[in-house]
Design brief:
Helix content: 25-40%
CATH architecture: Roll
Oligomer: single chain
Low-confidence stretches: none
Largest sheet: 7 strands, mixed
CATH class: Alpha Beta
Order of helices and strands: HEEHHHEEEEE
């Protein structure tokens, strides 16, 4: 299988296809995010984001900053030694309202951004190019 690259991600420009998360049924995601999960062997990344959405720290952040309840942004940063950090922000350059350290990942990119938008019923996870 071809390694996940930024060029591959730029081919995703948005469509109406959505996939539902198996545990957090209020989370759906686009073909671009599914491509990241498949090619990057990173369904765990969708799981991590979905596990935070609706959690106590998430609800607290929404109550403190209403923007988060409509849209927010996730970034996975991977270091050369395989450690990583997943953070969520209301907007750049705001401070993260969620931060999770990972002791190891073999995710093939050093950085990836995933947006989350609420449509009144579902949280849709999508790549910036799919906006």
């Amino acid at each position: 299988m071809q390694k996940l690259t930024e060029d591959q991600l730029n081919q995703f420009t948005g469509d109406l296809v959505r996939y539902r998360h198996s545990v957090n049924r209020s989370v759906i995601y686009t073909p671009g995010v599914r491509h990241v999960a498949e090619r990057g062997e990173a369904y765990w990344l969708i799981d991590a984001i979905a596990s935070w959405i609706g959690s106590e720290p998430f609800v607290k952040a929404v109550n403190e900053d209403g923007r988060i309840g409509y849209m927010h942004f996730w970034t996975l940063s991977v270091n050369a030694n395989g450690t990583a950090k997943l953070v969520a922000r209301a907007d750049s350059p705001d401070q993260p309202f969620i931060s999770q350290s990972l002791v190891y990942t073999d995710f093939p990119m050093s950085l990836i951004d995933i947006c989350a938008a609420f449509d009144g019923e579902h949280w849709t996870l999508y790549l910036p190019s799919e906006h």
